[in-house]
């Protein structure tokens, strides 16, 4: 059987069109005419032998085949962009200091370090897993060149990579978690202050008039997971990379406040080699696109 080689331009038009919500907007982003983008979609559908997109009101909706193809398309484009970045910058050398929020230390960081080392073997990369406040301070002081951290609404829109839902967490083995109206203050498991998510939890509980107490404080995420899994308290975090002994609590069933989403941003220091930072930022975005659910990713 003769294998089909997918057209990268057609894949990029397809992904951009879905992210933008229309192929007219995709044409503006790609600097092409709407008819050219539509023709590329038709070419892609011919190559895969299936309809990928259908009209839905004024927007676009994926077919089942399109939904499957979108995931592959993102991965193919990420690999394509990584290869181009590596080949076009063979002489890139120097060093860069990367900081990353500890929620992503075991999942995203290994991918990022491995890919960057293969693409740019002459660049020395130093990694640091730390809490949000420390990463922000080190970016501001120039002790880190690039940092992936939670967005406290001070970052520019262009720096935001994703938006993750927040949720209340309890022990997976606990049959009866805390419920409102039981006559006792909510036991809160939290990180040491200053902590953005701790502040958010307290503010949300206060806004709804729910009495709370700090039941457990940890300087690390591992300690927070241990306390939550043991049933010592309820924590506020995102549902990303939860340990098996911790579960998401449904807010309505437990009388807990509904929660907003939390931005994830990539901040760059004003000092350091910006060319190296730009290449590392590409790889971080690719790793997150492959790791996080599609609807959490912020399109640019």
From TrEMBL:
The keyword DNA-binding applies. It holds the Pfam family HTH_1. It comes from the Bacteria. One of its GO terms (molecular function) is DNA-binding transcription factor activity. Keywords: DNA-binding, Transcription, Transcription regulation. Residues 6-63 form the HTH lysR-type domain. Gene3D superfamilies: Periplasmic binding protein-like II, Winged helix-like DNA-binding domain superfamily/Winged helix DNA-binding domain. SUPFAM superfamilies: Periplasmic binding protein-like II, Winged helix' DNA-binding domain. Transcriptional regulator of the ttuABCDE tartrate utilization operon. Belongs to the LysR transcriptional regulatory family. This is HTH-type transcriptional regulator TtuA. It comes from Rhizobium glycinendophyticum.
């Amino acid at each position: 059987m003769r294998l089909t080689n997918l057209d990268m331009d057609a894949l990029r038009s397809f992904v951009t069109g879905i992210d933008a919500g229309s192929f007219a907007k995709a044409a503006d982003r790609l600097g092409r005419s709407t008819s050219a983008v539509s023709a590329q979609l038709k070419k892609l559908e011919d190559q895969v032998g299936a309809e990928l997109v259908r009209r839905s009101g004024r927007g676009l909706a994926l077919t089942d085949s399109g939904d499957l193809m979108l995931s592959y398309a993102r991965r193919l484009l990420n690999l394509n962009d990584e290869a181009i970045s590596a080949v076009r910058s063979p002489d890139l050398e120097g060093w860069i200091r990367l900081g990353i929020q500890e929620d992503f230390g075991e999942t995203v960081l290994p991918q990022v370090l491995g890919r960057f080392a293969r693409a740019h073997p002459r660049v020395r990369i130093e990694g640091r897993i730390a809490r949000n406040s420390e990463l922000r301070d080190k970016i501001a002081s120039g002790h880190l060149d690039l940092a992936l951290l939670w967005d406290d609404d001070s970052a520019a829109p262009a720096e935001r990579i994703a938006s993750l839902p927040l949720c209340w967490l309890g022990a997976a083995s606990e049959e009866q978690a805390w419920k409102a109206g039981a006559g006792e203050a909510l036991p809160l498991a939290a990180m040491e202050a200053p902590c953005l998510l701790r502040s958010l939890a307290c503010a949300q509980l206060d806004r709804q008039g729910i009495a709370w107490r700090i039941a457990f404080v940890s300087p690390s995420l591992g300690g927070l997971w241990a306390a939550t899994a043991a049933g010592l308290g309820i924590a506020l975090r995102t549902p990303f990379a939860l340990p098996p002994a911790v579960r998401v609590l449904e807010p309505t069933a437990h009388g807990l406040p509904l929660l907003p989403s939390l931005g994830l941003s990539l901040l760059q220091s004003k000092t350091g080699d910006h060319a190296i930072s730009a290449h590392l930022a590409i790889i971080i975005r690719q790793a997150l696109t492959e790791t996080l659910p599609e609807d959490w990713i912020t399109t640019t």
